[in-house]
Amino acid sequence: MTGPEPYISDAALLPVYDKVMAQERLDFEDGLTLYRSPDLLGVGFLANLVRRRLHGDRAYYIYNQHLNYSNVCVNGCRFCAFGKPKGDPQAYEMSLEEIFAKIEARLHEPITEIHIVGGLHPDLPFSYYLEMLRGIKRLRPTVHLQAFTCVEIAHLAELAGLSVADTLEALKEAGLGSLPGGGAEVFSSRIRRELCPRKLSPEGWLQVAQTAHRLGLRTNATMLYGHLETLEERVEHLLRLRAAQDETGGFLTFIPLAFHPANTGLSHLSHTTGFDDLKTIAVARLMLDNFPHIKSFWIMIGPKLAQLSLTFGADDIDGTVIEERITHMAGAQTPTGLPRQALERLIREAGCEPVERDTLYNVIS
Ligand code: V47
Q1: Long-range contacts, stretch 211-216, CB < 8 angstroms, 24+ apart
Q2: What's phi and psi for 216, nearest 5 deg?
Q3: What DSSP state is assigned to residue 295?
Q4: Which is the closest atom of ligand 1 to the Cα of 258?
Q5: How far does residue 257's CA lie from ligand 1's centre (Å)?
Q6: Ligand 1 centre from 326 Cα, in Å?
Q7: 364 near 112, Cβ under 8 Å?
Q8: How do strand 293-294 and strand 144-147 relate by DSSP bridges?
Q9: Tens-place pLDDT, residues 43-52
Q10: Distances from the Cα of 308 to the Cαs of 224, 314, 349, in angstroms?
Q11: Is 181 touching ligand 1 by the criterion CB < 6 Å?
Q12: Cα of 338 from ligand 1 centre, angstroms
C-alpha cells in the first residue's frame, strides 16, 4: 500500500488516518469528522485497521441464554416498549420456579453465559435477586452470570438499603460474574430530561460501573442511538466512557444499540439506517481506544449487517440468545435466536475466523 488514498475518498479523513497510523488518541473534533463524513468505506477502513491490530481476523461469539425476568418498571422511559407499570395487562414477573424451569429446560445445551436483565420492579425483595443467582448456579455451577445493568444495581441498592458496593458484594457472593452494559442510553442531560427523566443519572451509571470495576467485576457499556440525540451528544457519550475506562479499566465491551421505535413513545421516528449502524460501530472502534471489544448485537441490526460490521470495527457478534424481549417488544423483525452454525457461517463468510468465547473472552473452541 502506498498511501491511504485508494481507500479514503474524503480528504477530511486524512488527518484522522495519520493519527490512527501513529496510534494517537482521537479527540471530540475527530469523532465529529468521522460521523459527518459521507465516506463510509473510508471510515470503515480506519476502524478495520484498529480492529485488525487488536484482534487480527478473529471474530467472537458466545453460546448464551437471555433471561428477562420481569418487565415491570417504575422508570417509564419513552424509548422503551419493554417496561410496563405494575398492574398493566402486559406486565409480567417470573417466579423463581419459572426462572429455574427455563434454565433446566436447556441444561443439555453447552450454554456458558446467562444474560439477565429486567425492569425496575417496585417491590420484589432483594432476596429474590440473590435467590435467582444462587438457584441458577445450583443448576449450572460453571455458567457465568452476566446480570443486572448499572440501573438495576442502583435500584436494588435502594431497595436493600445498602451501598452500591455492598449490594454488588452480596450479588457477587450469590454468583454474579459481570454486569451487562444496558441503561447507559445517551449521557446527555437534555436527552435524559426528554426521554427518561426518572432514570439513574449518567454520573450514577458511571459510578456503579466504576464501583463494580473496583470490586473486580467487569462490565459492558452501551449507547442507544438513532432517536433524538445529536452527533455531538454521541461523541460526548463515547468520550465519557473512555475517560471512565482510563480510571478503572473494567469495561470489557462496548455495544451500540440501534433504536427500535415500534410500541414506544417515539413510534413516529424511523428506524436507524444501515449506513448509520455501520458508521456508529466504526466510530466507536476508533474513539474507544481503551475498550478491548466492540460488539454488534445482531438482534438489533440484523444478522446481515452484523456480519458486515466485522469489517467496520466490530470483533464480536454476541451469541445464540434464543429468547430476547426488549428489542422484540419494540418491533424487531430479527429471529429471537441463531444456532451456532449460523453464527459461524456469518463470521466465516466475512473472511474472519469464528472463535467461541466465554463472557471474559477466554477461548472455548
Ligand atoms: O438498556 C430499550 C435498550 C437495553 C429499546 O452487555 C432499546 O452484552 C432499542 O443493554 N430499541 C438492554 N434498544 C439491552 C442491552 C444489551 C443487549 C445486548 C448485549 C448487552 C451486553 C447489553 O436495550 C436497554 C436500552 O438501552 N433499549 N428500548 C428500543 N426500543
Answers
A1: 211/164, 211/165, 211/168, 212/150, 212/153, 212/168, 212/179, 212/250, 213/248, 213/249, 213/250, 213/251, 214/165, 214/248, 214/250, 215/165, 215/168, 215/169, 215/172
A2: 90, 10
A3: B
A4: 9
A5: 6
A6: 7
A7: yes
A8: unpaired
A9: 999 999 999 9
A10: 20, 9, 10
A11: yes
A12: 18
Provide the domain limits for residue 271: 58-356
Per-residue pLDDT at 1 exceeds 70: no
Residue nearest to atom 16 of ligand 1 (CA): 182
All three cell numbers of 265? 413513545
In the chain, how many domains are there? 1
Does ligand 1 come within 6 angstroms of the Cβ of 118? no
The verdict on residue 251 lying in a domain is yes
Residue nearest (by alpha carbon) to ligand 1 atom 10: 182
In a domain, 95, yes or no: yes
Tell me which residue of 171, 228, 236 sits closest to 206, measured CA to CA: 236
pLDDT band of residue 60 (cuts 50, 70, 90) is very high
CATH classification at residue 203: 3.20.20.70
Ligand 1: which of 257, 259, 338 to mutate, judged by most atoms within 8 Å of the beta carbon?
A: 257
Tell me the range of 240-244, 321-325, 334-338 where mean pLDDT is highest: 240-244
The pLDDT tens digits of the residues spanning 262-297 come to 999 999 999 999 999 999 999 999 999 999 999 999
The single-letter code of the amino acid at 151 is V
Question: Is residue 276, in this structure, part of any structural domain at all?
Answer: yes
* Residue pair 143/113 in contact by the 8 Å Cβ criterion: yes
Residue 17 belongs to some domain of the structure: no
Distance in Å from the first CA to the final CA of the chain: 34
297 Cα nearest atom in ligand 1: 18
